[in-house]
UniProtKB/TrEMBL annotation:
Alphabetized Pfam families for the sequence: GIDA
Keyword annotations from UniProtKB, A to Z: Cytoplasm, FAD, Flavoprotein, Methyltransferase, NAD, NADP, Transferase, tRNA processing
Keyword Membrane: no
Cell compartment(s), UniProt: Cytoplasm
Necessary cofactors: FAD
Entry binding sites for FAD: 9-14
Record family assignment: Belongs to the MnmG family. TrmFO subfamily.
Record protein name field: Methylenetetrahydrofolate--tRNA-(uracil-5-)-methyltransferase TrmFO
Domain MnmG N-terminal residue range list: 5-375
Protein's UniProt keywords contain Transferase: yes
Organism lineage string: Bacteria, Pseudomonadati, Pseudomonadota, Alphaproteobacteria, Hyphomicrobiales
Organism name: Methylobacterium longum
């Protein structure tokens, strides 16, 4: 039976969700508030407007997680990828687009689709119950009345308006000859082991040089519309450093309650702590390291921390306006709001980040809605695929509680952080990959082979999922 599915927001996610719904034979009603009401960043009334860069990032499906996501979306009939491919501009290994041509192609395809109706106007407050199934894809700049409606329904802590992000590091790039596992005072907390943090020690000279680098480092200024710059618990690390040379070692870098097992007699001057960030244990965030340093400066300065000299960052730190849900707590595995299952969420408001990721979650929200309309349950996507890894991050892969944070430690008000797709979200390989001769590889050769094995596994599992078969047994083993 044909159903009508309302979609609030005609951005990257809403447009893709509407396309999936319409192509499956159901009716999609898109409610887009522009041009009746604008946002601080959008300039046009086009659907799927790109508000900043015109790049969809790497298009390499064998060596890059976002390139793999492109490939998966193409194979699932994505309108966003079709319009991007048709409006490509030269950009080396990246997929960049003519932004006007791209948005016009998406708008045209939806306006011409017989199953799509486009309504221009703000949905003020929660969508009315009589609409039935609805996908909310209103993005990082969700209009305030709707944001308030969501908060009233889910609780004040459930919707963030700022993204205060500390850098996140791939666990396998941390030098374990320097760092060690230990929670402060070995406290196990309610769900920890007493050894839940990775600790990187600094002596006095290293600490003084680090503080000086933070103070001198190049920073990004706040854009006018971003409103109140700092709020409790999210002070950027460089702002703390500017308050005095000792501030950090009495704050997030305090060296108390920790003993370096390699040098128990020596007291560190300061210690950087990293806390597990995903259930797989492949990603660690730098505790209390929210920052407005430029990305290049973050990489340069944070790699001076002992143990992080070769750190690979899954994402760098930042502080900007972003409306997003505490999704692991609020959404079920098919992106429905547990408190009101007729509402499904998609796009950046769910806690993914980036044009491609937002569209990808829109694609899956559309498919989940279609399956529900048909009375079917859509088989969960294997987490070994880029789409599945992203959904798992949003709906459950993330660590939501902080079992062993000691008093006074930089406790984030909530720990779920928006994320681009990256290989740290994928279940690790059961064994380190070997080349054709059976030799174990090292360095860049090993990294390249590992990515190829991960992406081959993803392609096989997506093909099996699409064919309706169970994916290959991918039960994650301990990190290699
Ligand atoms: C300033 C800025 C710069 C960015 N730069 C980049 C970048 O360079 N690269 C990148 O990959 N990502 C970037 N992002 C992130 C990017 O916005 C998102 O990744 C992507 O656009 C999110 O897609 P979405 O569909 O979730 O939201 P959007 O694309 O923002 O779409 C949401 C839509 O909902 C509409 N809407 C909101 N509230 C209502 C309402 N109540 N009723 C009806 N309609 C409503 C809005 O008008 C908008 O059209 C940036 C974000 C911002 C804010």
């Amino acid at each position: 039976m044909t159903q009508t599915i309302h979609i609030v927001g005609g951005g990257l996610a809403g447009s893709e969700a509407a396309w999936q719904v319409a192509e499956a034979g159901h009716r999609a009603v898109i409610h887009e508030m522009r041009p009746v009401r604008g946002t601080e960043a959008h300039q046009t009334d086009s659907l799927a407007e790109l508000v900043c860069s015109n790049s969809f990032r790497s298009d390499d499906p064998e060596g890059n997680a976002v390139g793999l996501l492109h490939q998966e979306m193409r194979s699932l009939g994505s309108l966003i990828m079709r319009a991007a491919d048709a409006n490509q501009v030269p950009a080396g290994g990246a997929l960049a687009v003519d932004r006007e041509g791209f948005a016009a192609a998406v708008t045209r395809a939806l306006e011409r689709h017989p199953n799509v109706t486009l309504v221009r106007g703000e949905v003020a407050g929660l969508p009315p119950e009589e609409w039935g199934p609805c996908i909310v894809a209103t993005g990082p700049l969700t209009a305030p009345t709707l944001a308030e409606g969501i908060r009233d329904l889910t609780g004040a802590e459930s919707l963030a308006f700022f993204d205060a992000i500390a850098p996140i590091v791939h666990r396998d790039s941390i030098d374990m000859d320097v760092a060690w596992f230990q929670s402060r005072y070995d406290k196990p907390g309610p769900g920890g082991s007493g050894a839940d943090y990775l600790n990187c020690p600094m002596d006095r000279a290293q600490y003084d040089a680090f503080v000086a680098a933070l103070v001198a480092g190049e920073k990004i200024g706040f854009k006018q519309w971003e409103g109140t710059p700092y709020f409790d618990g999210c002070l950027p690390i460089e702002v703390m450093a500017e308050r005095g040379p000792e501030t950090l070692r009495h704050g997030p870098m305090k060296p108390v309650g920790l003993t370096n097992p390699r040098d128990p007699q020596v007291k560190a001057c300061a210690i950087v702590q990293l806390r597990q960030d995903n259930a797989l244990g492949t990603l660690y965030n730098m505790v209390g390291f929210q920052t407005k340093l430029t990305y290049a400066e973050q990489v340069r300065i944070f790699r001076t921390i002992p143990g992080l000299e070769r750190a690979e960052f899954a994402r760098l730190g930042g502080l900007h306006r972003n409306t997003y849900l505490d999704s692991p707590r609020l959404l079920d595995a098919t992106l429905r709001l547990k408190a009101r299952p007729a509402l499904r969420f998609a796009g950046q408001i769910t806690g993914c980040e980036g044009y491609v990721e937002s569209a990808a979650i829109g694609l899956m929200a559309g498919r989940f809605a279609v399956a529900e309309a048909a009375g079917d349950a859509l088989e969960p996507l294997p987490q070994t695929t880029a789409l599945g890894a992203l959904i798992a991050h949003i709906t459950g892969g993330h660590i939501t509680s902080d079992p062993s944070a000691a008093d006074g430690e930089a406790k984030a008000p909530r720990s779920f952080q928006p994320m681009n797709v990256n290989f740290g979200l994928f279940p690790p390989l059961a064994q380190a990959p070997r080349n054709e001769t059976g030799r174990r590889l090292r360095g860049p050769e090993k990294a390249a082979l590992k990515k190829r094995v991960l992406t081959d596994r993803a392609r096989a599992d997506l093909a099996a999922w699409m064919a309706g078969a169970q994916p290959a047994d991918w039960r994650p083993a301990a990190a290699e």
